[in-house]
Amino acid sequence: MPKLMDTTNRTMISEFVLLGLSSTWELEVFFFFIFLLAYAAIVAGNLLIVVTVTFDSHLHSTPMYFLLGNLSFLDLIISTITTPKMITDFLSEKKTISLWGCMAQMFFLHFLGGGEMTLLIVMAVDRYIAICKPLHYTTIMNRRVLTGSVLLSWGVGFVHTMSQMVFTITLPFCGPNVIDNIFCDLPLVLKLACTETYVLELLVIADSGLLSFVCFVLLLISYTVILVTVRQRSSGGLSKALSTLSAHITVVTLFFGPCIFIYAWPFSSFSVDKFLSVFYSVITPLLNPIIYTLRNQEMKSAMNRLRKQHVSSRLSL
Ligand SMILES: *[C@@H]1O[C@H](CO)[C@@H](O)[C@H](O)[C@H]1NC(C)=O
């Protein structure tokens, strides 16, 4: 019974072993190339959005794009916390991560994940005001409110991650140290602690699972209210609103769905959890630029404007 062992004569572990996605070499090589491509696309796509929104004055002064630029920035960092390590792990025989590397991964994952959730809610509120209160839109969503909501999302992320991590970093780990996942995340790491973590597990369920669930329901309700409002007015705006909102709903479902599944039933050891982890760390950051940008005329013309400016400034030198 390791849980009852004397604290003085047990060896503390200093690193964890990640099992990764598969155990056959061919599949590992296959995943290596797939995820390398995906990560390159994530960096390129999200960086393109951040640069375009930052340097195009029209987009930067449009609330929706201002928020979108910040969402892309968060996506970029979230996937950078997990993906590069995961990619190099595919090719390495021993997939280890140090105890502190593991803690840092969990800290930043929940920091930025909590921030992203908040930002998605702010974006839904933004759409609600734009569509349901169009006359007051510019006065409500002014620069101060926008900057405030970005700061708020970082604040919420910080409080969210700290509330779980202050307890997690004090846990003793004395083996086993094998994590059946592609990166460190709270449910699996807590299970490895050689002490009673029941209360902490409940905290994670409430703090991550319940929170994602409530946010998700709130978002779906707000989208429904928007659609109903648009329909009542029914001046041809429905199809446009539908196309904007379906993009939002897709992203929100892909992000929250796996989170709810992973954190609301965290300790029932579903082995699908590691595949779901791929969703919010790779698929969502990859899809955001595709969904929001490539189908978006305003974004495309802003990119063209920037390219032309760049070319003409180089010609005039
Ligand atoms: C994100 O928010 C910050 C501050 O609120 C702002 O200065 C910045 O331009 C935004 N980033 C993008 C890419 O829109």
List the topology elements.
Blueprint: E1 15-18, H1 25-55, H2 57-60, H3 63-91, E2 96-98, H4 99-132, H5 137-140, H6 143-168, E3 178-179, H7 186-192, H8 198-233, H9 237-264, H10 273-294, H11 297-315
Parallel strand pairs: 1-3
Antiparallel strand pairs: 1-2
Helix pairs in contact: 1-3, 1-10, 1-11, 3-4, 3-10, 4-6, 4-8, 4-9, 6-8, 8-9, 9-10
Protein name: Olfactory receptor
Main location: membrane
Subcellular location: Cell membrane; Membrane
Describe the structure.
This protein is an all-alpha fold and 317 residues long. It has a single domain, classed as Rhopdopsin 7-helix transmembrane proteins. Helices cover 76% and strands 3% of the residues. It has helices at residues 25-55, 57-60, 63-91, 99-132, 137-140, 143-168, 186-192, 198-233, 237-264, 273-294, 297-315, and strands spanning 15-18, 96-98, 178-179. It has a three-stranded mixed beta sheet. α4 (99-132) packs parallel to α8 and α4 packs antiparallel against α9. The site of 2-acetamido-2-deoxy-beta-D-glucopyranose has 9 residues, from α1, α3 and α6.
